[in-house]
Amino acid sequence: MLLRYFVNFYDMEIIEEEAFLAWKEDITQEFPGKGKALFQVNQWLTWLETAEEEESDDEAD
Known about the structure:
Helix content is 75%, strand content 0%. The protein is mostly helical.
């Protein structure tokens, strides 16, 4: 379910790629359920990271 929200927020350009990736990297114990959330969306976040890197490479060419 969380994955669906993330994808929709991304597709509708409500949340930018950088915000998703910053959230992923923010390791804190302040939010105990974050580990479960990351598990649900990790594959998508990895795809997002890879897509952003490929886009940067294309722009450099």
